[in-house]
Specification:
InterPro entries: OMP/PagP_B-barrel, OMPW. Pfam families: OmpW. Its main location: membrane. By secondary structure, the protein is an alpha+beta fold. It has a single domain, classed as Porin (Beta Barrel), CATH 2.40.160. It is 20% helix and 43% strand. The chain has helices at 2-28, 40-48, 97-102, 207-213, 286-302, and strands spanning 65-75, 79-80, 84-85, 91-92, 108-109, 115-119, 122-132, 137-145, 148-156, 163-170, 173-179, 187-205, 217-221, 224-236, 241-250, 253-260, 310-317, 321-330.
Length: 331
Amino acid sequence: MWCALMVCAQVLPAQATTNESVMHRRWQAGEDTSATAPTPATTLAQAGEGSPPASGLQIDKKRRWFARVGVSALKLNDKSENVEDVTGPVLRSSDHPVLRFLAPGVESFGTPEGATVDVKNSASLFGSVGKFLDDHWAIEGLVLAVPFKHDIYGKGTIERLGKVATVKQLPPTLILHRYFGEYNARFRPSLGIGLNYTYFFDAEATPALESYTGGPTKIKMKPSWGLGLFAGAQYALTERLHIKLTLGYVRVRTTATMTTTNTMLSGSSPVLHDYPYPVNQIPTDPTSRQAMDNLVGQVAAKRGGDLGTYERELKSELNPYVLLMSVGYSF
């Protein structure tokens, strides 16, 4: 053992001397010797090679943001009330003495009772942007869409008129989702609650409606604020791509205001068919029809050339079921 120690003592100094001699010769020759000599920092760095990185560096940054495009279909639960006169009836029995003979028992010629509408379903394209607040909660805004277009048909007393109007609408909606399952799970169901704003525009009356009201008719519909409930399921196709199916129910209420200008009626006006007997017989009887034309002309002359401007209102609850089918991209 003592022999082994003696050998080591002789060898190690010899190696140190050799290294010092080599470095001294390189220094005299003008060479850089700093890279040759190991330093504590170099030693620690070399010792650290192959060691696992800190735990914080092992976590990939999650793609919290997402965007979706897809198709949206609306099935309306339309509950429309009857049309109501706001500015009063177009004619009253007191406007002309002949009216008492043509329409005994009828005090006024306003909108016939039971006149309402049926708003039809619609579908369109939409786009949304959202962000996961954590692994389970996300917020999504349905901010882009091709306007929904709804056909509006007469119902009740005016059902025979067919289509009476069209209207377009945009329904931006903000939804708070609660997702279930792990964040990186391929399939994730969700529930949500949302705030909807429905904006109606480009409402137009058809010739059938304008013939019924007796003149050019403009329609305006109030925007609607309402809550919505949603249930959905998301399926991941890749790390970034997914598809999602969502069903919802949204509360939508609106009031349509119809303003008819330059109003004129005649013995052949369609609206006369919806008044009680014997008024509904006026269009089919030549004598009564001519008498009606004459008295309306006289009343219009007293009012300045026509019967005036009249406003009517219709309150509706649309409350659609919503179907959203979309493809999403996470980033």
